[in-house]
Specification:
This protein has 118 residues and is mainly beta. Helices cover 0% and strands 54% of the residues.
């Protein structure tokens, strides 16, 4: 059974920091391309950052220089360090995994709420 479990969300003031974690089980973690997505109320889900199985990273423009994605294959865990948070970062953040060799195997976590107050 595949599980992606996010943690680390919460309420923070603008300018603050949070670190999200995504603990994966039931997948070959090192073989998966991983990513963080977010969905704000009334908006479509958008990619925030992703990290390939080989370690290359990609960020949406609005978080470049503020967020850092990383992974620890030994711990089957992905992270998102979020600094200089802004109210517009408020959203539910989702962990995503897709097998780099067999892309039909794609999974989502249940999401964690991040709220940034002004």
């Amino acid at each position: 059974q595949v599980q992606l479990v996010e943690s680390g969300g919460g309420l923070v003031q603008a300018g603050g920091s949070l670190r999200l974690s995504c603990a994966a089980s039931g997948i070959i973690f090192r073989r998966n391309n991983m990513g963080w997505y977010r969905q704000a109320p009334g908006k479509q889900r958008e990619m925030v950052a992703d990290i390939a199985s080989g370690g290359s990273t990609n960020y949406t423009d609005s978080v470049k220089g503020r967020f850092t994605i990383s992974r620890d294959n030994a711990k089957n865990t992905m992270y998102l360090q979020m600094n200089s948070l802004k109210p517009e970062d408020t959203a539910v953040y989702y962990c995503h995994a897709i097998d780099s060799r067999i892309p039909k195997y794609e999974y989502w976590g249940q999401g964690t709420q991040v709220t940034v107050s002004s």
